[in-house]
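Shift notes (night). Ran NAD(P)-dependent oxidoreductase while the centrifuge was going.
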Amino acid sequence: MKNIRILLTGASGTVGYETLKQLVLKDKYRITVFDLESASATKKFTPFKDKITIIYGDITNKADVLRATANQDVVIHLAAIIPPLADDNPTLAHNVNVTGTQLLITSLEIQSPKAFFIYSSSISVYGDRLKNPYINVGDPLVPSEGDRYGQTKIEAETLLQNSNLDWTILRLAAIMGDHKISKLMFHQPLDTSLEIATPRDTARAFVNAIENQTQLSKQIFNLGGGENCRMSYSNFLQRSFQVFGLGNLDFPAHSFADKNFHCGYYADGDILENILHFRRDTIEDYFKMEAKKVSPLKKAAASILKKHIKWYLLKQSEPFAAYKEKDQALMQHYFN
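Came back to this:
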């Protein structure tokens, strides 16, 4: 079989790195990674330097993108600015997520017009689904109020669908693994219906997509872990707090938003699973993996300091700050 030439963007990210690790196990692939140069990226790529071509560059720079897109058969496009940075710097998010994707598409149309473009989108494009948590691909795309990240994903999807390339779009559920606690924790309502996928299952879907082009061509799919990866957000957080030694989820009222986030259950998620057979992990597997990362010493320390840690976390809650300050505009955004 001929060597399939694959361009992977965002290979230093959580899903990107898992995808790279799985790709290098297959000898028939000639892999090029395109990423911003950083100490972290260099450290991650060094073990694979004899098996991959590394091109450092900026996806918003036309010359850099042209260097990466010549003679490629498949592109797995994972590079993106995600929340909370996407919320804090919407201009950067638009430049990378939309303009960068357009540069990638245009360069491929010129240099690799037969390339199969596998695009990573997001469940955020569906917006707030608290009242109707079961999601299908054909549902309206209505990002939550102020969700610039979700909007950039819709714009990039449209660019790809209007291109001359062959493509598929995978809309990712909540990807949990190496997940950093941030202020976004409080943006999500506690009664959210949450379906997760692990980074390694998600990566497996992208890798398996390479040789299923015919079944995926010019179609959009929802990618989630399925029924075994579902629970309420409140239960998910409570379990997570227990894993890290933080005890109960006992934040004061108005710490968490009531609306204007995203997530839900993918009603049609089995369609992609039946094509790509990527699911291995359950939500219980996720918690076991997270527990292995927490040493007994760290867990004991967190348990001792849990009140201080929760106080620090609460200071990051923008809904709670809006409630305390009686900011009517923000209260209307976060609360019913």
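The first strand starts at residue 4 and ends at 9. The chain has 15 helices and twelve strands.
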